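To: structure desk
From: M.T.
Subject: fold request, one chain
Message: Could you run this one when you get a chance? Sequence is below, nothing fancy, just the single chain.
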Amino acid sequence: MKESKGRRQLTWNDYLKFIIPSILGILLFMTPLTHEGEMTILVALLSNAFSNALGDLISVIVLIIITISALLTLIYRISKPNFIENSEFLKSIFDVSITWLIIRLLGAIIAYMTFFEIGPEIVWSADTGGLIFYDLLAGLLGIFLFAGLLLPLLTDFGLLEFVGTLLVKVMRPVFKIPGRSAIDCIASWVGDGTIGVVITDKQYQDGYYTLREAATIATCFSAVSITFSLVVADQVGLMNMFPPFYLSVTLAGIIAAIIVPRIPPISRKPDTYYEGINRDESTHIPEGYSLAKWGATLAVEKAEKNANLKKFIASGIRTFINMWLTVMPIIMCFGGIALMLAEGTPIFKWIGMPFIPLLKLLQIPYAVEASETMLVGFTDMFLPSVIGASIPSELTRFVVGGVSITQLIYLSEVGGVILGSKIKLNLLELFIIFLERTLVTLPILALAAHIIF
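Reply: Done. Structure tokens follow.
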């Protein structure tokens, strides 16, 4: 390392400290590849291989994790045992409010009813509790494991500092968020929305996002992967029109990302950092530095702080254990209850009725049938396309499928992960943001549909 006239002169050895781990992170989380005819990312392949290797044992492990979460939270609430009280890490997991204790206990009850198939079938059927327990949580077990262990390659070795500094003049004025958030969005787009939320939550806890910024990124930039968009397009019978379909979805998503953060509830979130720690230096460019030079300097400094294998492994283990114990019970609870309501009651048909006049105003054929899909996506993103697949009009199916993708927040996955994170967004706020995204993107997609058809 050399100093010259107050400026740090970086050598190739310095650059490699952040370039090599960052390239590995990009390859793992952000590089699309084709496997068995489907686009995916390497972390997802590792997760699938892990799940396949465990076989039926994976559901037992999920049940054990949810049990530990609920039981130890209850025990801590009652007796505060020393092994939790004296561990900052364990205390951060199990010292929760009475509301979250109840949610974890409910999640455990639904998990046991599903695993042993006891009680009403609406609780444990393949379309409700079974979908969450056997399909979603079984998949997230591996995703959380490998994301937790390997995510530091993407977040702790300077890539976010470098990209954030370069993009700050674009992301900050347009979307009111740091430039580094572009990485969260790309990771979601090529991988999975839950990965984007995990990255956002970690960056928030590490002091790189304020609460408002983290709430914005989690709800507006945890984009659905292009793979899932293909699945939705296929379900509504529009695979032959995927390019204009996805282009319309992307445009609507960008406009929503500009508008929604500027209105409540996100706009009212304070610009305060988690535990008051602010580590974001990408916006302060010292005199004599270009954007690239300052970004590279921050990246190298970040990489040097984390160039410790023991620290890397310990951080990864803490991350995935925290996600297992805090997020999975919440997804089981909220996702299970939401799907029960969707499958067993007409509630989403009723609350969709106010959309009928709007859909008719937008000249959407079969407005009554389309209205039933507008809000059901809050429970699970795939439900609108399943319900809308039988609508005869291609134009309507285009709108239904597109809206379901741009809504982003659904309790059976991304919404559940947000609720389980440290980002302070409650269930009502998530629903309001979901509704705002629906109202913003629906007219845009309707206009695109009328132009295309």
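Reply (cont.): Confidence is low (pLDDT under 50) at residues 1-6. Let me know if you need anything else for the meeting.
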